[in-house]
Every structure is written in C-alpha cells, then in structure tokens.
C-alpha cells in the first residue's frame, strides 16, 4: 500500500548552510509518528516542508510525496488544494495561530466552509454555525456558544489550543501535524490536550505527525519515533524499542536525561 | 537557622486582583526549596517580592532577622550581596555588549566588594565548568547552556548566601537541562537555593523541600520526598498525575 506521506532524501538548505540533510521517513494512513529533536534539529522545518510552507530563503531538495502529490517544487495553487484536505497543522503557540481580531466562531467557520465547498456543499449560514458549535463541543470546550462568540484573548491558553485543534479537525485532513502543541501549556492542561488529541486522532482515523522535544509527551501519543539531531535522523523505530534500548549515543543521552527526572519524581534516583 | 522568613504575605493589583493570599514559609540555611506552580499561581510574584523588586501589600519578609525593605538603600546593598538571582532566558539576561569578564564581575563592582576581582571571576567560571579564556568573549559566542552557566557564575561570584532561580532550566534543551541541574545540585552544597519552577521532575532532582502553589495559595509544603510519595492535597495529586512519564 502506498504510504500517505513519503519523505525521501529531503535536504533543506539556506545559502551554504544545510539545515536538514538526507531525511527519509514514511507514514501510512492512520499511523502515528513522532519527530523528536532539540532546538536546531530541523523538526519544525521538516513539518513546514511537508505542508509546502517553507520560507523562500530555504530551498528544499529530494522528494515529499503527500497523498500522491509531489510537494517539492510544486506550484502554490496545487499545494493550496492539499492543505486542509490532505494535511492540517496545529502549531505550538495558540495565541499567535489565531487571528486576534476575529471571533472564535468565525475562525472555525473558515476552514469548515472550505471543506464543505470542497465536498460540493453550500449549506446555509445557520447550518455552518451549528457545525462550528459541534466541533467546539467535540474538543471538549465548555459552553460552545460563549466560546464561539469570544475573541482569542477572552479565553485561556488551553481553550485556545482546543480551538486550534477544532480548526484543524474541521478540515478532516488525512494527516494532522502537531508541532509542539502542548509546549506552551501548563502541565495539567497539557495532560488534557494530549488525551484529547489521542482520542480524536483514533476516532477520526487520521495519521499524526507529532513534533516535540519532550520524550515522555511523544511517548503518550505515537507508536513510532524518528530522532533528529542537527538535521539528520540518528535513529528511528517503535517508541518502546527506541526508548528501552536506544542504539545511538545521542538518543541514549536524551533517554537517560528523561528517565533521571522520572526517577527523581519516583524517588528511585 | 532560618535565612528567610515569609509571613502572611499578600500581594494584589487593587482590591479586584489579589495575586497572593497570606503566603507563609521559611527557608532554612542550606536547605534548598522548590516553589512549584502553574501559570497564575503567584510563583513569579513571590520571587519579585523576595528580590525586593516590589513590596508586599500585606505581611512581612525577614532576611537574617531584618525586615526586607526595598526602600532602604543600606539594607538593599547588604541584601543584594547575600541574595542573587538566575533568570529563565539566558538570551535576554546577559548584556550582549559586555564581555563575559565584565558581566561576571558586575556584582563585585556594583556592590563595591574589595579584593582581586580577576581571581573571583576565574573561580566562578571554574565552578560553573567554563574555560578560563571565556572571559574575553561575548555572550553571542556561547550556546544557551553555556550562557546559563555565565548567568550562574555572575550569581555566585559575590558568594551570596541565597540564590533565587526563576525557571532557570526551562528554556534549555533536555540534554543541556540535565547538566545545568547537576551544576545547581553541586553548587547548592555551599549555598541555599530557592528554585521556582513549573517542572516537578527538576524540583524533585534539586530541592529537599517543596512548596506547591495554586492561585496565590500554598496548598501543600514540606519535605519533597514525602510530598511526592504521598501528596495530600487534590491539586498536588492532579499535578503529579499530569506529569508525562517515560514508558516502562
């Protein structure tokens, strides 16, 4: 079966500097994979490359096949068709991902309307509004009517991230990319958002590319991981195998560090 | 011996927004304390009060038996010598136009501490594990972890009794964070550390005592091991359950 996303020999350069080097991985429909790396590892750039949203100064080479469509070197108009239907992204900072001047309901209605148009439907406004409320309810936001009628600054950080997830889900994409979606959130809110993402992705059968520097967070939502360092993949495999028996020295350092904080919490250090 | 005594401290912005509600705790000499809470818990406000950057609206803070009074220049000069701080972001807490030598010796100069500053700077650099030739370089020549080492060297150069650290490892990558936590652990053998953090794992690694804050109230405090092993307050329990763990 052809994978939903197939990244082959991806190299990203700006001027003489190589940011991502010869990266290859693939993701089947409904699969969940984590891209782990520290700052400068190229994990977010890889996500941007998959969605065709790289800054003009960064030149991609190699191949990214998403839902049967080549992304590298493809016209913006073609890529626009892929965004939403094939892929949607949840970014790290929900405050900057949302338009501060637009009410939440209108913001969620945007991608929802595009998806409905794509499906050849043109429902009346009232029906779109009802579906917006359903999506807000789906991401466990209390009082969806009040939230829909609020501006981003009027709701909490966790609620804003739920709205960003609702917008991505409204597209019904085949692949959801979550780029550090809980890094800006408090730990109790993070736990709730991870649980929500996990259950929604399972329920809707989407593939998930989860990008994070936080090993235990990644382990809660994905089955496979690729570890990036300075733009190169140093190790990949099932979460349990990579975290239990890391082969590369860099992965070993990360796993040992994460385990040492766990051990300190449990009093086994 | 009690180094710092915080008694019934309140702080608010007018009557409408009360940030701290009668907070009391003591910091004993040589016993590192972790202040843990989520956004809006008041942990940074407590740190600002402890630094003398702002005054409590109620209650008192005593240091070494004297009331912390930010308006007393004499008291604050002695206090700054005894209490130093390390902040979260090593990219904004170091002056980009100063060489490392000047950054680290700044407390010695502004506090008019007599003696050979060059030797004190070299000893501080050595204590934080940076090479001696770092003194002639600028902050931008260093990585995030190395910059945080410079900030720590600046905090310890005047040999303070107490170091206040505000989320001092939160902005660092995991592999760097573990090394800076180790550095703090080593340094805390010779000084007292108040470590403000949202990260329970880091506090568990570093601090003998822990204070859990929720919306300006201390909900639980005491020995870190005992609290983590058997949290009594529902909020502490929720906090502990929410921390993601590595798969076993």
From TrEMBL, chain A:
Task: Please classify the protein's predominant subcellular localization into one broad category.
Answer: membrane
What residue stretches are annotated with the ABC transporter domain? 5-255
The question of whether Ion transport is a record keyword is answered with no
From the Swiss-Prot or TrEMBL record, state where the protein is found: Cell inner membrane
Q: Which GO terms describe its molecular function?
A: ATP binding; ATP hydrolysis activity
Q: Which Pfam families does the record match to this protein? A: ABC_tran
* InterPro entries found in the cross-reference section: AAA+_ATPase (IPR003593), ABC_Ni/Peptide_Import (IPR050388), ABC_transporter-like_ATP-bd (IPR003439), ABC_transporter-like_CS (IPR017871), P-loop_NTPase (IPR027417)
The protein's topology relative to the membrane is: Peripheral membrane protein
Lineage top rank: taxon: Bacteria
Q: Which terms in the GO cellular component ontology are assigned?
A: plasma membrane
List keywords of the entry alphabetically.
ATP-binding, Cell membrane, Membrane, Nucleotide-binding, Transport
- Family, as annotated: Belongs to the ABC transporter superfamily.
Tell me what this protein is called.
Answer: ABC transporter ATP-binding protein
Source organism of this protein record: Pseudaminobacter soli
From TrEMBL, chain B:
Gene Ontology annotations for the cellular component aspect, listed alphabetically: plasma membrane
How is it placed in the membrane, per its record?
Answer: Peripheral membrane protein
Q: Which PROSITE patterns match?
A: ABC_TRANSPORTER_1, ABC_TRANSPORTER_2
Coiled-coil residue spans: none
The record places domain ABC transporter at: 4-240
Q: Which UniProt keywords apply?
A: ATP-binding, Nucleotide-binding, Transport
Task: Give the GO terms filed under biological process for this record.
Answer: peptide transport; transmembrane transport
Q: Where in the cell is it found?
A: Cell inner membrane
Q: Name one Pfam family in it.
A: ABC_tran
- Which superkingdom? Bacteria
GO MF annotations in UniProt: ATP binding; ATP hydrolysis activity
The text of the family note is: Belongs to the ABC transporter superfamily.
Q: What is this protein called?
A: Peptide ABC transporter ATP-binding protein
Q: What is the lineage of its organism?
A: Bacteria, Pseudomonadati, Pseudomonadota, Alphaproteobacteria, Hyphomicrobiales
């Amino acid at each position: 079966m052809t994978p939903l996303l197939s990244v082959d020999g991806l190299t990203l350069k700006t001027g003489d500097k190589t940011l991502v080097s010869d990266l290859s991985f693939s993701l089947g429909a409904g699969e969940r994979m984590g891209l782990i790396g520290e700052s400068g590892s190229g994990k977010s750039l890889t996500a941007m490359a998959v969605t065709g949203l790289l800054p003009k100064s960064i030149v991609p080479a190699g191949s990214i096949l998403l839902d049967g469509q080549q992304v590298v070197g493809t016209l913006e108009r073609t890529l626009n068709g892929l965004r939403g239907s094939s892929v949607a992204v949840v970014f790290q900072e929900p405050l900057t991902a949302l338009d501060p001047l637009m009410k939440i309901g209108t913001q969620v209605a945007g991608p929802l309307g595009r998806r409905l148009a794509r499906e050849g439907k043109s429902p009346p406004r009232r029906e779109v509004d009802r579906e917006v409320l359903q999506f807000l309810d789906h991401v466990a936001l209390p009082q969806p009517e009040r939230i829909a009628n609020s501006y981003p600054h009027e709701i909490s950080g966790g609620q804003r991230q739920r709205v960003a997830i609702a917008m991505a889900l409204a597209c019904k994409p085949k692949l959801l990319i979550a780029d550090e979606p809980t890094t800006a959130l408090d730990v109790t809110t993070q736990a709730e958002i991870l649980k929500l993402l996990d259950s929604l992705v399972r329920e809707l059968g989407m593939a998930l590319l989860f990008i994070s520097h936080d090993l235990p967070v990644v382990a809660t939502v994905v089955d496979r991981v690729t570890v990036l360092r300075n733009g190169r993949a140093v190790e990949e495999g099932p979460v349990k195998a990579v975290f239990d028996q890391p082969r590369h020295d860099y992965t070993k350092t990360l796993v040992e560090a994460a385990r040492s904080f766990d051990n300190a919490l449990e009093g086994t250090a | 011996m009690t180094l710092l005594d915080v008694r019934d401290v309140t702080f608010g912005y007018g009557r409408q927004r009360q940030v701290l509600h009668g907070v009391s705790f003591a910091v004993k000499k040589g016993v590192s304390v972790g202040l843990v809470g989520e956004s809006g818990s008041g942990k940074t406000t407590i740190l600002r009060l402890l630094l003398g950057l702002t005054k409590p609206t109620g209650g008192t803070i005593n240091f070494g038996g004297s009331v912390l009074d930010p308006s007393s220049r004499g008291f604050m000069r002695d206090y700054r010598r005894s209490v130093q701080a390390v902040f979260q972001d090593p990219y904004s807490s170091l002056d980009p136009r100063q060489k490392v030598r000047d950054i680290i010796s700044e407390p010695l100069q502004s506090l008019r501490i007599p003696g050979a500053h060059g030797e004190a700077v070299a000893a501080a650099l050595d204590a934080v594990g940076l090479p001696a030739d770092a003194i002639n370089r600028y902050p931008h020549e260093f990585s995030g972890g190395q910059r945080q080492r410079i900030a720590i060297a600046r905090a310890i150069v005047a040999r303070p009794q107490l170091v206040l650290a505000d989320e001092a490892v939160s902005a660092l990558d995991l592999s760097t964070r573990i090394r800076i936590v180790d550095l703090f652990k080593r340094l805390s053998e010779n000084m007292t550390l108040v470590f403000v953090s949202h990260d329970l794992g880091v506090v568990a690694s570093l601090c003998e005592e822990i204070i859990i804050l929720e919306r300006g109230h201390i909900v639980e405090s005491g020995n870190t091991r005992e609290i983590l092993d058997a949290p009594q307050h529902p909020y502490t329990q929720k906090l502990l359950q929410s921390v993601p763990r590595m798969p076993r």
